[in-house]
Amino acid sequence: MSIQTDQIAKLVERRENARLGGGPKRIDAQHAKGKMTARERLAMLLDEGSFEEYDMFVQHRCTNFGMEKQHFDGDGVVTGCGTIDGRQVYVFAQDFTVSGGSLSKTMSEKICKIQDMAMRVGAPLIGLNDSGGARIQEGIDALAGYAEIFERNILASGVVPQISVIMGPCAGGAVYSPALTDFTFMVKNTSYMFLTGPAVVKSVTGEVVDQEQLGGASVHASKSGVAHFAADSEEDVIAKIKALLSFLPQNNLDVAPEKPTSDSIARSEDSLNSIVPDNPNKAYDMYSVIGSIVDDGAFLEVHKDFAKNIIVGFAHMGGRSVGVVANQPAVLAGVLDINASRKAARFVRFCDAFNIPLVTLVDVPGFLPGTQQEYGAIITNGAKLLYAYGEATVPKVTVTLRKGYGGAHIVMSCKQLRGDINYAWPSAQIAVMGADGAVNVLYAKDMKDNPEKAAEIFEEKKKEYEELFSNPYQAAQKGYIDDVIEPRNTRFRVIRALQQLEGKRQELPAKKHDNLPL
Ligand code: HXC
User: Which residues pair with residue 299 across a beta bridge?
Assistant: First the structure.
């Protein structure tokens, strides 16, 4: 054998060894938990044969607690570049078989390298997280490593889409990096996110809780809102990531790819002409409206199980990617509360950062009042959505279907928040509040002074109020909405509006950065 052949054989052997991560026993343990290895996950995520791996031979430099005797090529993370549906992405996948995927300084250097490259070439970054957090044996070096990653997450925010996937028990720094990214996915029953696990919780606070109750997908996708998507399995999570990417541009200077469709833009939907019930207190399902107007009825919902009184997600209209924000009258009458405001604000800001036009469907009775909401800062949280819409410079097309009351009317992309094209259905009611509430405020004294005539006064004034405000024409007369449209034509009118706005350019005043209410 020549020296060169020998050298090549050594390379092949080292590569094979590196591919085993923490070794066959730990790989078996990973499989026994219903989890795949880092490399198996990447193979599923990326187009076949597209993965270019970097830093396969990197090893940690720690000498504490006998670590100098435990070396694994590549350390606890696999990093590199590949394609998904032919589009370039940068990826890292933490390897739980090596020290529980815990972060060493060298691991952070590997991750930072691909973060820097994603920024340099303008491609999305996807992190598959399966990590016990900072590698305890490395002390302050591991913390420094996390800080390096966080800083890059922050700098990349609004420049390239950043996607985090939680695929195991993730603690400490392993959850703060995802929290800085745009979208977090979890896998039900095998992934957890918490500052620290149940054992430490018990020793600090005495609380006894298991991993699922503390930070399972069911908690973060529905209660805290930390996770945007919850998947049934690792295969399902990969499919969901690919679906999301199909709506996104590569970076903030790019536009999302077009998706050709045979769904005619002129398709009208007769059922929409009768979807709004006569009784304003009766609900209908906003999903039916969204499904009727988007291309092929296809809608990728974000935060599906969190704050269900507002719906946000991606669709295509006339082949172009749009972000849909819609009040849901079927849940809490579509009221805006703290969680709904936070959810929608974050989504609006993402779309604005990545040139995705916003289509807003309004049926909102107002903000939810009461001590619970006030103590939780509904004022500040509601202002987030107001701020997000007012700041957004992407094309904004809004349709008011029914209620648009008070501050909630303003917040939901009204004309004066630089809404570009605002339509209303004939069933729209754009007013400071609903008729009952308004009469009770304006005529309280009259009704109190004439108790025997109170019911009569109420009915008479309610009718007067409804005639004046329970329609879209007051707003139309003043140009606050651009047109009253037949519901069945909504798809066509919205797509035409989006086409008109394709060349939209709008600037914000020069500033260091804004001061969004947090
Ligand atoms: C070093 C770690 C580790 C860590 C796990 N391991 N976490 N090694 N540093 N942080 C090792 C274990 O010793 C074990 O090694 C292997 O990984 C698998 O871990 P297990 O505990 O056997 O697995 P499991 O029962 O599934 O539990 C996983 C876990 C638990 C829930 C993640 O390991 C855990 O609670 N780890 C500590 C979590 C934590 O508090 N991290 C620090 C956060 S502070 P062997 O050799 O036995 O297989 C932090 C700072 C940043 O991250 C803060 C930013 C704001």
Answer: 315
